[in-house]
Amino acid sequence: MNGRLRNQWLLQQKELYGNFLYLEKKENISVDRKTNLDDFKNQINNCQNCKLSLNRKNIVFGIGNPDADLVFIGMAPNENEELIGEPIVGAVGELFDNILKAINLDRKNIYILNILKCKPPNNINIQQDEIDQCIPHLDTQLNLINPKLIIVLGEIAGQKLLHIDLPLNEMRKNTYQYNGIELMVTYHPDALIKNSNLKRPAWEDFKNMRNKYLKEDKF
Ligand code: SF4
Prior knowledge:
Structural class: alpha/beta
Strand content: 5-15%
Largest sheet: 6 strands, mixed
Shape: globular
Strand order of the largest sheet: 1-3-2-4-6-5
CATH topology: Uracil-DNA Glycosylase, subunit E
Radius of gyration: 19 Å
CATH superfamily: Uracil-DNA glycosylase-like domain
Number of helices: 9
Bound molecules: iron/sulfur cluster
CATH architecture: 3-Layer(aba) Sandwich
């Protein structure tokens, strides 16, 4: 069924049965998104587009709800994330879960990604060519998920994604656009564990995000 016929069919079904069936159809869209993301994951699982593939143990594709309106993006996986194959795990993950809970969200509502899917050596020395090679993967993921808001976690991730040279303390005061999606930048939970003084400004950011977006029913 092409797009026009599908829309006509949905409108007919909505007229006949109300929102119930319409919402059931939305579930099908969700299944499509999940399938498309799974397919894409299989497609890049062996990616060798940059030298980070050479010492890779696991690709860290990202995880979450394929229908999420809110996507968090960090810079790159660390050792733990690479071992487990998921972003934001361990003690950092626990803190992140607590922050989400404090704004009435949990991992079932969101999707978590990194700009780089493979761990850089010592988690530093990220090279521009590695980012250039991996950004198309991120763009495809965002295209498939189609979120309403991106929260970037960490200064380097914000600078690399936005191509700007501002410190995080400046970036977090602004709202940006990435591929037509609204984007905000705040501290990575890993930084909050290393420096507890950052917890207060990070909490302000999450509260702002909650007040601005949850009250507008964007999710
Ligand atoms: S970092 Fe990205 S581009 Fe480089 S090998 Fe991994 S998936 Fe491919």
